[in-house]
Design a protein that fits this description.
Blueprint: E1 2-3, H1 10-21, H2 24-40, E2 49-50, H3 65-75, H4 83-93
Antiparallel strand pairs: 1-2
């Protein structure tokens, strides 16, 4: 009933479907998740959301690669000039994100 650790991997899996197989349904799905996370901005992505897009109060602190990494892979479907892709890659490359949340 929430977007949390079991569902945060979905943009990664769907993004790979597009990148490997050029699957148009995957691109359409990833465009929606990329728009959501792109609007929030990588620096404000938290570990968990209600289905209305509001951050889960228990998970609104700290940032983990578990959420940012898959969101970044999903942004690969938008092309190399995607701000979400660039910001997400930079955030993950710091190696300072939490591995699985707090």
């Amino acid at each position: 009933t929430h977007y949390q650790y079991d569902s945060c991997r979905t943009p990664f899996r769907i993004g790979l479907d597009y990148c490997q197989y050029n699957e148009p349904r995957a691109k359409a799905y990833a465009a929606k998740t990329s728009q959501f996370f792109g609007t929030i901005g990588v620096s404000k992505i938290v570990d968990g959301y209600n289905l209305d897009g509001t951050p889960r109060p228990l998970n609104a602190t700290g940032q983990s690669a578990a959420f940012i990494g898959p969101a970044t892979v999903g942004a690969m479907t938008a092309g190399a000039d995607s701000p979400l892709l660039a910001q997400g890659y930079s955030a993950v490359a710091t190696r300072s994100l939490l591995v699985g949340g707090e």
